[in-house]
Amino acid sequence: MIKHKKAQWPWHGLTALVLVGLAISLYLATSMMAYEWRWNRVPQYFAYQAEEAQRAASYGTVAEIVVQGDNARVTLKGEDGEPQVLDVVKDSLQLSRGDDVAEGDQIGVTRHWAAGPLAWGLWTTLWLSVVSGALGLVIGLFAGLCRLSNNPTLRDLSTVYVELVRGTPLLVQIFIFYFFIGTVLNLSREFAGVAALALFTGAYVAEIVRAGVQSIARGQNEAARSLGLNASQSMRHVILPQAFKRVLPPLAGQFISLVKDTSLVSVIAITELTKSGREAITTSFSTFEIWFCVAGLYLLINLPLSHLASRLERRLAQSD
């Protein structure tokens, strides 16, 4: 009996209609608020042309001005006879040949492309996420294995750590690290932020690792021990590789949450993506545009991470 595959295009069409409806609803909502969209103000917060003033080093006279396209080369002759050559943008030139200049007078400016606050905020969020995630993975793996240890001290200490961190808000932990531990040990705000994020992530990774290891049948460990492997070798070569396949989805979800949790370190004056967005709003007055861009940048980080985890999960499943 031949089964006919149902057409999927009507459902895709319905999805498109829902998305269009949401976009129209957003447009109508902003129209009722009399909100004026100003997307032209947004690009400067990603990259802009910075100006650097060029000033006279000493008292002297403008000896020569040579125009080269959009730039101008200005030669100043100082009182000691030493020339000073400055390259500036032609339309910023403020002097003419023969004019006298004093020390510190601005001759013109040079322009170069520079990263805007949203670009710097994105970079800060990325390195915070990578460093905190790597440290959290190491901490979580160690704490998770300690929770499975036969040593009561290791088991009790790891349990206290996991329950304490998971039972208190991350925001409170950041405050404690920065204002208490950071003050006592003279830690920078970046170190305190990374430490708080790493320990918070490590507690959740520890539970994920513990659950993954316990999901492996005990016969696997017994078979490995019967082949002559000790407990450490059995865990490293037999149990953990199988557990990793099972814990990959929750691990990916935890690291995606970590990227979003980095927004909380703005409370200790670390200018990550969310804080950069707030600062951009205060100067641009483009509230919706900036927040949509911030949300899009978080998606730009998390969607590839989620896709990579899915692909890795499928490859590991095929290797079974």
Outline:
Pfam families: BPD_transp_1. The chain has nine helices and six strands, in the order αββββββαααααααα.
How would you describe this protein?
The protein is of the alpha+beta class and 320 residues long. The chain folds into two domains: 50-114, RNA polymerase II/Efflux pump adaptor protein, barrel-sandwich hybrid domain (OB fold (Dihydrolipoamide Acetyltransferase, E2P)); 117-318, MetI-like (MetI-like fold, Orthogonal Bundle), CATH 1.10.3720. It contains nine helices and six strands. It has helices at residues 9-32, 117-147, 152-166, 170-185, 189-214, 218-226, 231-261, 273-284, 287-318, and strands at residues 47-55, 60-68, 71-78, 83-89, 100-101, 106-115. It has a four-stranded antiparallel sheet with strand order 4-3-2-5, with no helix packed on it. β3 and β4 (83-89) form a beta hairpin. The longest helix has 32 residues, at 287-318. The chain is elongated. The protein starts with 8 loop residues before the first helix and ends with a helix. The mean pLDDT is 86.
Keywords:
about 325 residues, alpha+beta, OB fold (Dihydrolipoamide Acetyltransferase, E2P), MetI-like fold, 4-stranded antiparallel beta sheet, 6 strands
Ordered list of secondary-structure elements with their pairings:
Elements: H1 9-32, E1 47-55, E2 60-68, E3 71-78, E4 83-89, E5 100-101, E6 106-115, H2 117-147, H3 152-166, H4 170-185, H5 189-214, H6 218-226, H7 231-261, H8 273-284, H9 287-318
Antiparallel strand pairs: 1-6, 2-3, 2-5, 3-4
Helix pairs in contact: 2-3, 2-5, 2-8, 3-5, 4-5, 5-7, 6-7, 7-9, 8-9
